[in-house]
Fold this sequence. Notes:
It is a single chain. This protein is α+β, with helices and mostly antiparallel strands. The protein folds into 2 domains: 10-165, no CATH class; 177-486, Alpha-Beta Complex (paralog of FGE (formylglycine-generating enzyme)). 22% of the residues lie in helices and 13% in strands. The chain is built from 7 helices and 14 strands. The protein has helices at residues 18-38, 67-81, 88-108, 141-159, 228-238, 314-323, 331-339; strands at residues 45-46, 58-64, 126-132, 189-192, 195-199, 212-216, 219-222, 264-268, 283-287, 404-410, 442-445, 465-466, 476-477, 481-482. Strands 12-11-10-13 form a 4-stranded mixed β-sheet. The chain has a 3-stranded antiparallel β-sheet with strand order 1-2-3, sandwiched between helices. It has a 3-stranded antiparallel β-sheet with strand order 4-7-14, with no helix packed on it.
Amino acid sequence: MAFLPPSTNADYRGAPSSAAFLGLAAVMTLVPGLIHSFLPDGGAGVIAGLDLGERRDLVVGVFAWEGATQLALGLGMLAVALRYRPLTPLFLVLVIVERGLMTLQGWALRPPASGHHPPEHYATPVAVVLALGPGPGAPDTADVSRIALLGAACLALSGCGAHNVSKETAGHCLADMPAAEAAPSTAGMVLIRDGDFQMGAKPLHREEGPPRMTRVAAFWIDRTEVTNAQFAAFVAATGYKTLAERPLDSRAYPGLSGGQLKPSAIVFVGAAQPAGSDPGAWWRVVQGADWRHPEGPDSSIAGREAWPVVQVGWDDAMAYARWLGRDLPTEAEWEYAAQGGKRTATRFVWGDQPLDEKHPQANVWQGIFPAVDSGGDGYKARAAPVGCFPANGYGLYDMAGNVWEWTRDWYRPNLRPDAADNPGGPPQTLAFDPGDPGQRKHVIKGGSFLCSPNYCYRYRPAAREPGPTDTGENHIGFRTVLRPPA
Length: 486
């Protein structure tokens, strides 16, 4: 039974059956979808015109990703359609069938939840099939009205039901994220066996190196950075308040008073000029910023449960670790784990090759810092959910970029060449930051989404920096370790 409307127009007698139209809709839906699955980062459009039967019926398929492309093609097809008489009921049936096919196809073509593309990044293509009869020349007023109505339906239907979720809004990248459990449980952790490795490298920044051979005992380390969901469980169980949620101590900050002592944290706000301008223009002390509100009181972690927790100071990270009967990694443990078991130390977690702009190995700043981040890795000037980029040789995610990670060690420029066996950094009395000599600080490792080749360039295992002492920042997180009993 055909879906064709009754008509006295003899030109409809050669029109194809509904089965032919539905078959064609399925083919036109799946083939571009398969192409799209191999080209997930781009937009595309396909227009197909076919002669069916003896009466030159035109079938047009419009496939588009990205709103602007979709709108342009849709309007173009409406312009073409004005020359033909629409088969209205068939059009509606095909659109409904198409939406079902596209939904099924979108789920079927999604890749495993690993690698540098989260499953949400694979958008289901939007497809609209217009079945148009061979109308005789210019349409009448009724035709124009019907086509306008169908055009509106086309645009409305194209937006509903599509799985076009970008990396920017993806909720998670790893399907298996176990809740953190207290020791001796090692859920969500990876065992790193004891061994020797080259710690440090020929300095690219003055605080790095000199390189030395170092031995590390076996330990367990979190597969990912601690997430908002995991930290929330800790807060719910203990009532803990982070440094950013507490007012500053006026005795420690005699130069501050009143509102300046209110709870606050440091937030990156960017700048219009490239690096070299005043860093004070890139950062703000924002009252009300904390781990629940990483960018300030109007922000939220709702929907970001799988993002790394940030705005946590060293004391906060250590409190979480101790709650689980764990510890923060030493700088040596962290760097050994970051190298991923390679016999020879490499410049980056993934090897010596520079960052691949087409298939980035980490969430870092792509562009001229701090003015423009192109977001070629899927995230513009912001963190990503944990595990969105390839794991290293030990199966650890985000050991480069995304967010800096706290270590247990006190900070001092350069490495001690004589500390070669399970080193734990200098004692607190020798901690020293030349840039802020009045404050003793701890080492942070791994770089963050704010590191770029033209500035920072610390998304390398050997890179190191001092972290802030008394508050959090929206690009610093952590992971924990568990050491087997001696």
